[in-house]
Amino acid sequence: MTAEQKIKIIRPATGEDKIFADKDKRISDFTFDENVSNVFDDMVSRSVPFYDEIQRMVCELAADFAVPGTNIYDIGCSTGTTFEALHPKIDPSVNFVGIDNSENMLNKAREKLASIMPERKCDLVMADVNGGIAIQNASVVTMILVLQFVRPLYRDRLIKKVYEGMNENGCLLLVEKLTSSHTILNRLFIEHYYDYKRRNGYSDTEIAKKREALENIMIPYRPEENIEMLTGAGFRHVEDFFRWYNFTAYVAVK
Predict the structure, then answer these.
(1) Structural domain that includes position 44
(2) Residue 91 half-sphere exposure, CB side, CA atoms within 13 Å?
């Protein structure tokens, strides 16, 4: 078995996602608190179609663009899954910088990445991307299901900041949930997505309650809006490398 075959993208979850299982529990806005961080790996693996494959593709492309002596940033690094999978593929002189606004998530990431830290510089930084972040000497930046949580008012500024801190020929790997301007297709995509969640064990109560909790904090863009934002920041080439109904992934090259 090769080293690549031994890589496990998603570790066993620390707990099963039952956050929204109580039908009598009052719903508030979704937050990445301790309860969510404790079940996040299970939550994302059951809620994001082809999550394992998306992570594999992101790591492959990141390895293609990573340059020795530079930095790879994971904005919204959550529990550190991407860095864990990326580590065996990347030259040890490449530094990892994970940014997240949840200390609970960063604590989980520190636990998950403890074994690689003696071999590679890995900084985990708490920061609110709405307020601006520092990017420098970056050959790769990843943002996996993060931009949709950034207030629209600040998204263009954030992407411009990423572009400015990236080296020439570097890439941004962006994974996002989408909405569509076509009303019928948008409804169908959402319905099929909820069917996917049901197949993964979520009840109608859980689906409805999570939708309500996310309503005010997750605002997906249309595909053309994402592309316009990336090209407007200066990226010279933008292409999608994954699409499943209302989920997509882009590679943007500086």
Answers:
(1) 31-180+214-253
(2) 11
Output the CA–CA distances (angstroms, integers) from residue 207 to 20, 31, 196, in the order listed: 8, 16, 11
Residue 240, token pair as written in the block: 């999608």
CA distance readout (Å), 125 to 66, 76, 93, 114, 152: 21, 10, 19, 15, 23
Q: Is there a domain that residue 222 lies in? A: yes
Cα torsion angle, 33, 39, 41, 44, sign? negative
pLDDT band at 223 (very low <50, low <70, confident <90, very high): very high
pLDDT value for 9? 40
Please give the average per-residue pLDDT across 44-56, as a whole number: 96
In this predicted structure, what is the pLDDT of residue 14?
Answer: 57
* Alpha-carbon gap, residue 128 to 251, rounded angstroms: 23
Q: What is the CATH number of the domain that holds 232?
A: 3.40.50.150
Residue 150 Cα distances to 33, 129, 147, 218, 221, angstroms: 17, 7, 5, 8, 11
Stretch 125-154: mean pLDDT, rounded?
94
pLDDT digits (tens, 9 = 90+) for 52-89: 999 999 999 999 999 999 999 999 999 999 999 999 99
pTM: 0.91
CA distances from 169 to 57, 112, 144, 179, 187 (A): 19, 30, 20, 30, 38
Query: Is the residue at 154 inside a domain?
Result: yes
DSSP per-residue codes, 31-56? ---HHHHHHHHHHHHHHSTTHHHHHH
* Domains identified in the chain, total number: 1
Angle CA 124–81–73, to nearest 5: 45
